[in-house]
Amino acid sequence: MTKQSIKDINLENKRVLVRVDFNVPLDESLNITDDKRIRAALPTINYLLERRAKIILMSHLGRPKGEVVEDLRLKPVAKRLEELLGQKVKFLDDCIGPEVESAVRTMQSGDIILLENLRFHKEETENDPQFSRQLANLGEVFVQDAFGVVHRAHASTVGVTQFLPSVAGFLLEKEISFFSQILAEPQRPFVAILGGAKVSDKIGVIENLLPRVDNILIGGGMAYTFLKAEGLDIGSSRLEQDKLGIANKLLEEGGEKIILPFDHLIADKVDASAHLKTAEKEIPAGWLGVDIGRQTIARFKQILKEARTIVWNGPVGIFEIAPFAQGTKEIAEFIGDLDCLKVIGGGDTAAAIAKFGLEDRMDHISTGGGASLEYLEGKELPGIVALTMEGNPP
């Protein structure tokens, strides 16, 4: 960890501006249906409470595109956070302006304020300097603890760091620690499982991981573009025609490291009521691949059994539809029983692990789908780059 941590700075009685990721799912009645992201921020918040800091939390929710959207207010989050902490969380109707500044000025040590949705202001996603300064003026120290947005150069991730000493919170520190470990010093064999719908989402990941891994197991919709590149018939399966060239190049570079599905569960439509059958190697016209087949599952398990490090980004089938979920479920359960380092990229993979009740059997489940993807691509994430370096006093 080359960035300063929350543990490296004096926080006693300070106004601490904290970027959290409270972008939680809400139902039609605006009830939170999954509070994992709120819970993930608790270690940092509790640490600040222990140091009698004045805590100002800021987050986005959804994509209001610079306008106030009533259904995307953070008030339900404030209520849930109060329940989890067992103490008052003051919710403000905006994130900048005289009323916000007044509320912050009158804070006592140990108080918590949650600001309204940052993205109600278009200046947030534009990384507007004036908006950044208005946010930064609320605090004396900035803590970045929202891994899910550090791949975005926004006012609350990059802009505020121009005006305040800026350090990593515990969640961000944990994410960096796990991803740095698997990319820099993985225990071997190191196996990556890559799935999801599109090859285009994973090209950078494959290119960055190929020199580092012992095997890449490919499933999901993206597998069919690779299979087509090998000259196989894929029926009506998902195909990115414009990515056949790069798929072919990656297969040549990867050689025996890349393992593709060699049998499939196929359906006549993407629906729970679809007719299903299995296909060896090639898929007939009018049918499409919806999950990896039994032989492929067995082969993947055989490789995973020897692994000392596993990173998984993207389901290997359309797990949201029960008849198409078997491959993802079996691989997840199998990995859960292994004695090795298991890191799950966020997004759909994390949702699958949660659906199958296997969260406590993984070493780390990332809170950021897009951010974890870019980290695995080897990209520098602007919200991390902007933090104060170790050895430089904030």
In CATH, the homologous superfamily of the largest domain goes by the name Phosphoglycerate kinase, N-terminal domain
Q: Helix coverage percent of residues?
A: 25-40%
Strand-and-helix sequence, N→C?
EHHEHEHEHHEEHEHEHHEEEEHEHEHEHH
Give a short account of the largest sheet: 6 strands, parallel
Q: Which quaternary structure do these chains form?
A: single chain
- Going by helix content, strand content and strand pairing, the class is alpha/beta
**Shape label:** elongated
Number of helices: 15
**Which runs of at least 5 residues are low in confidence (pLDDT < 50)?**
none
CATH architecture of the largest domain: 3-Layer(aba) Sandwich
Average pLDDT taken over every residue:
95
Task: Throw out a few tags for this protein.
394 residues, alpha/beta, Rossmann fold, 2 domains, six-stranded parallel β-sheet, 15 helices, 32% helix
